[in-house]
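> forwarded from #structure-qc
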């Protein structure tokens, strides 16, 4: 994690879970993270099983120039990344994974900024899985709020084992996601990559079969 706000939110979540895979959603006290609220959000599942925003902070909504409540999380991302992001959100909600996504936010006029997305699972019971998250720019350009973000692009991602090295999260290698051709969007599938990947023509090759 590169952003202080992401680290603070992770540490808060880690304290609340007390060794469990995730804290209960009722454990979250907004007053405890009041300095982070503008950049945080809650995800839940809609009737089709897609991750949607239940709540979204004011600064995050301002960046997209719209209220995000009820919008699909994956809909914020470029078409070629949408399927991967949907799988990552599913992993957080259903498998209690912790996910860190480094992304490039591209505005309507073509400006860009690096953004760090953190997704943390919450225990809402079998029927109400939830996720707590944050989206924090690595730098805050002058145009945020006046030039709406049009889409997000993944630059790298990491699926984290929070029990092994919870602060700096180096136990799972970061996967750098190369640009995909427009026809590659349907190739991405299967398990979420958690090791170094390389692209050969239209295939994303992930090394496996090695013991940790």
């Amino acid at each position: 994690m590169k952003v202080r706000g992401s680290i603070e939110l992770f540490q808060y979540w880690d304290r609340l879970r007390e060794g469990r895979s995730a804290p209960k959603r009722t454990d979250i006290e907004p007053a405890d993270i009041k300095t982070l609220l503008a950049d945080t959000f809650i995800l839940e599942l809609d009737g089709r099983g897609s991750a949607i925003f239940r709540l979204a902070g004011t600064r995050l909504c301002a960046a997209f120039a719209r209220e995000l409540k009820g919008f699909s999380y994956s809909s914020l991302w470029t078409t070629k990344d949408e399927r991967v992001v949907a799988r990552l959100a599913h992993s957080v909600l259903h498998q209690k994974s912790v996910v860190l996504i480094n992304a490039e936010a591209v505005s309507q006029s073509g400006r860009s900024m690096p953004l760090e997305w953190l997704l943390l699972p919450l225990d809402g019971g079998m029927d109400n899985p939830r996720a707590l998250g944050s989206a924090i720019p690595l730098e805050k350009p002058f145009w945020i709020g006046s030039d709406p973000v049009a889409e997000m692009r993944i630059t790298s991602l990491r699926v984290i084992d929070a029990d092994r090295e919870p602060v700096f999260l180096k136990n799972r290698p970061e996967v750098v996601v190369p640009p995909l051709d427009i026809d590659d969007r349907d190739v991405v599938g299967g398990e979420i990559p958690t090791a170094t990947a390389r692209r050969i023509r239209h295939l994303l090759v992930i090394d496996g079969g090695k013991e940790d």
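QC bot note: The helical segments are 4-17, 58-64, 79-95. The CA atoms of residues 23 and 34 lie 18 Å apart.
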